[in-house]
Design brief:
With about 450 residues, the chain is α/β, with parallel strands linked by helices. Helices cover about 40% and strands about 15% of the residues. It is built from 19 helices and 10 strands. The protein has an 8-stranded mixed beta sheet, with helices on both faces. α13 packs across α14. The radius of gyration is 26 Å and the shape is elongated. The protein binds fe (iii) ion.
């Protein structure tokens, strides 16, 4: 089973990454920052977790307000470093852990935390500022994998402090019920007191930061009851991101042992680091069995539905590149390029030979089995002039006519819009070519 080896709290200011990249260790102005992180790195080197569960917020780098969510769990295979304006920092990408993330997702959603999920998005200083200090790395990569949890703390309403704490409690159940042996360290990032906007920019409150650290350790319940306005008054509006720390605190028991705590205020933000180990025991065998059953319950038995491929996180991660490629067909320029020279686009998207072959042959059932979601198939159909009914028939291994007989009305349709022009299979179309035989989609195009 997976186990939580402990929790790390760390601020995630850009200054930390700046100090690291420019090797300011011997500059007296920056020394306290390195001193705050050194014991945490040493603890990680001793405890050697396999995975860091990283609670952070993106700073409108990879997440924008076209779709802003409260809790977004990173399920991807690999995490690149984001470009925040002046080029990405010179750090290697870090591996993810999709299988573990998928289990956490099932368990948390079963506990009624309806998360959003992301992959293919770069992580900004919210992750890489502390990570570069916390873990040794070289061009080959990092000695640890990461599962990031992005908390939307920038556009109000944001989750309450208590909601974050409760998510942490559910997270603990999720981690401990993962059947693989995995050593997990929790990393909570953000804050402490700061405000970076408006006439109040530069606000800090060192006394509150120290009190916050005391309450965090000994009386998190009191923090859970605070409103965002109360947190902002004491710690600045952006300082209210410390609610993210409560995810980690909720995942530890009431009894924690603090191994380290440091605080420094070099510029705009109170930088704190701390390490906590949990004094609670392990869950019993029967509790673990119950938690696993709970996490997997919703799709239990679905495997008996032959010819069905529920679109799970595992499928989504495995076929991400191909789904993303086909999703690009919603863009007119990509559609035109696809029709003119698909091979060039395959190359640009670095599709594997298997993926190219599935698309070339319009192997509809093969695409589904590979992990492509049906709604990409209907987009591809719309672009190449194939109706939805052709696709349904081909997936079932039937002729269009055979499949049509199973319907109450023999109608044809697709999601093609005004750009598609006349559709060869549309018998209602007035044009002469409307009566042409529908394309045989069960065989490769000649
Ligand atoms: Fe932040």
């Amino acid at each position: 089973m997976a186990s939580i080896v402990g929790g790390i709290a760390a601020s995630h200011t850009p200054t930390i990454g700046f100090a690291f990249d420019r090797d300011k260790r011997n500059d007296p102005a920056w020394t306290p920052v390195f001193a705050a992180f050194d014991p945490v790195r040493e603890w990680l080197e001793q405890r050697r977790p396999d995975v860091l569960f990283f609670v952070y917020n993106d700073h409108v780098t990879s997440f924008f307000f076209d779709h802003y969510s409260a809790f977004a769990l990173g399920t991807g295979e690999r995490w690149e470093v984001a470009d925040e304006g002046g080029g990405a920092r010179d750090l290697p990408a870090v591996e993810g852990d999709p299988a573990f993330a998928a289990h956490l997702a099932r368990s948390l959603v079963a506990d009624e935390f309806d998360l959003s999920f992301f992959q293919g998005r770069a992580l900004d200083h919210g992750v890489f500022s502390p990570l570069s200090m916390l873990s040794r790395h070289d061009a080959a990569g990092w000695p640890v994998r990461i599962v990031p949890l992005q908390v939307g703390v920038l556009q109000f309403p944001i989750p309450t402090a208590r909601r974050c704490y409760r998510l942490g409690q559910a997270l603990r159940r999720a981690i401990e019920s993962y059947p693989e042996d995995l050593r997990v360290a929790l990393v909570a990032t953000g804050g402490l007191s700061h405000q970076v906007h408006g006439e109040r920019a530069g606000f800090n409150n060192t006394a509150w930061d120290e009190r916050f650290l005391d309450l965090y350790e000994n009386d998190p319940e009191r923090l859970c009851g605070m409103t965002h306005a109360e947190l902002a008054e004491l710690g600045g509006v952006e300082g209210a991101e410390v609610i993210m720390w409560l995810v980690m605190r909720g995942a530890l028991s009431a009894n924690v042992r603090r191994l380290h705590r440091a605080y420094t205020l070099p510029s705009m933000t109170g930088i704190a680091t701390a390490i906590y180990e949990d004094l609670a025991g392990e869950p019993s065998v029967s509790e673990l069995a119950r938690l696993r059953e709970h996490a997997d319950r919703q799709l239990q038995g679905v495997e008996r539905l032959s010819g069905s491929y529920p679109f799970t996180i595992e499928r989504s991660v495995a076929a991400y590149r191909l789904n993303k490629f086909l999703h690009s067909l919603v863009e007119p320029d990509f559609r035109a390029a696809f029709l003119a020279d698909p091979e060039a686009l395959f190359e640009r998207a670095r599709l594997s030979e298997v993926e190219r072959d599935l698309v070339r042959r319009r192997d509809w059932i093969g695409l589904i089995r590979y992990g492509v979601i049906f709604f990409m198939l209907e987009k591809l159909g719309a672009v190449i002039g194939v109706s939805n009914l052709h696709i349904y028939a081909a997936m079932r291994g039937q002729s269009l006519e055979e499949f049509q007989k199973t319907r109450n009305a023999q109608v044809m349709y697709s999601v093609a819009g005004k750009d598609a022009g006349r559709l060869a299979w549309d018998r209602e179309a007035p044009a002469a070519d409307a009566a042409a035989a529908p394309p045989d989609v069960s065989r490769p195009p000649s």
